[in-house]
Amino acid sequence: MSSLKEALEVYAEESVKQAKSNLNLTGFAGKKRKTNNTKALSNGLGFNVIETKAGYDVEFTTVEEYGIFLEKGVNGWDKSQGSIFKFKKKNIKEGVMEKYIKDSKMRLTKKVVMPNGKISFQFVTKSGKAGERNIKQAAYFMGRAIARDGIIKTNFMSKAQERAFNENKEQLEEAFLFEKAFEMKSKLGKQGFNVTLK
Question: Mean pLDDT, to the nearest integer, of 82-87?
Fold first, then answer.
């Protein structure tokens, strides 16, 4: 590895790659369900390696603001998820769930009581006027449940960073020591010492 910046770029790139994978695998709200239905969150992940006076900072970025809520979770108004964020109203913002339902491959069902008294669930349409009513009704109940119970944190990014760091630890340490050695050589050289790096 020729430089600390290159080593950090490899680490950051691997972190983003694993975070994308986590979004497709991590359970949402305690259920084994993908949290990346539209792919907008994973497609919007990125990073910057920024040079500072002290060295370098790795900044992970996202174009979808809700990513932080999936990462750290959100407390419901009735149930705590141990998060710094909290739903304050009885339902989430109007239109959010409707858009999610329309954009996702989710299929809607409704509960039907059969003539014999048994309960059955039947698929309903998402198209036309009937579909609009079905989506609006489903969005209301789903939004209310999420606002009540909150969102369990997935740690999709922090888990990815930890794993990527462990996988690249040796290269990062080597690059860091190499960078510090050059820094010390420069400082000692200015003081009149002749230092040779092997």
Answer: 95
